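Researcher: Structure prediction, please.
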Amino acid sequence: MRKTFRIKKPAEFQTVFDHHQSVANKYFVLYQLQKKDQKHFRLGLSVGKRVGKAHDRVHVKRRIRQSMLELKPILPKDRDFLIIARPAVAHQSQAFIKQQITHVLTLAKIIKE
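Model: Predicted structure follows.
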């Protein structure tokens, strides 16, 4: 996933948090913000220390990014997404993580199953 697809600055994270459209399941919390005139969606990730050691957190982030990249054709382009990983996601497979992200996106009515 290109760096232009990522939310990196704390002020951008805070903007999405402040508008507070969120949904959650056991594994992820998803915040979204609709932004007009945006060429592609952007993704911000937060994986806390309760998920595991640094290499575990990086592993989870890579799997989330890959899942979102695979879902890219069906995601709206005018959104910023923040995904917060919960500790239960620590040692899950790529397929399971993608399934749970799809579930959260369905709960948010962003995609249809």
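Model: Strands lie at 21-24, 28-34, 42-47, 79-85.
Researcher: Thanks, that helps.
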